[in-house]
Amino acid sequence: MKQLNNLLPDYRQDGNGNPAFDIRMLTNIDENSLIQRNGQFLIIWITRGQGTYCISEQRGLIGHNHLLFIQPGQLSGIQLHEEAEGYAISFNTSFLNRPEGDITARDGSFYQVFARNQTITTGPETEEMQSITAIMLREFSRNHLYRREILKQYLKIFLMYLAAQMDHSQLPRQTRNEAILESFMALLEKNFRTQKMVSDYAEAISVTPNYLNEVIKKMTGHSAGHHIRQRVAQEAKRQAVFSNSCMKGIAYDLGFYDMAHFSKFFKNTTGMNFSDFKNSDRVLKAVI
């Protein structure tokens, strides 16, 4: 079995501070070859074989011609059979530099699938998507003046194909709710360290806290408050695993100035004491 625990989030940024983009064939992934940087979306596309994954402590299966969508900071582990083939694509939304009016910027169904951590099965467009992926792989290996722009445009096209398939998958088209979901997820990723109240996000989106909770739960299955707590807890777990920071340092970074409050929050959200979690290898265990 091939373990991809190295897909867990990491602090690393590129040398120029540019938004991250990475694309690899799964057969070329080793222990340190692919990092899901903080703030990245991740797409795993299995073209052959199968595997299992764990996202926010929830486990599932992924098989032939399935795409798995993972929002920032949510991957706990993934394990693929040795014969599995496919691709891993990771990126920040800012990499796309999406102008207003771009379909990939407006299409809330894309955010809806990421919010649900769903998988979809590729359809008639599989051949075209594989061709686009092959071009991205080729350009990613090159080093020339237009490399970034070419990758950006082909990634946009790839995402448009995905958005079209989501439409065909009968995802509900709730324009207002999708816009609220997209705004909430973007604000959460930017502000989860300093803003932990639903009212903070509701005010920014110009809705009431109760309405925001209602919409987010309808679209994702969980309330806005749940997403806020899970994002903060996921970052705490990531730092516990990948940094040498003590509980106090992690708590301060996440906006907690009372250690008892942070300790209680961590236990209530994850089901484990912080010290027990940090001293265990739970996050790095293979998904069975």
TrEMBL record:
Keyword list, A-Z: DNA-binding, Transcription, Transcription regulation
Domain HTH araC/xylS-type: 182-280
SMART domains: HTH_ARAC
GO molecular function, one term: DNA-binding transcription factor activity
Annotated protein name in UniProt: Helix-turn-helix domain-containing protein
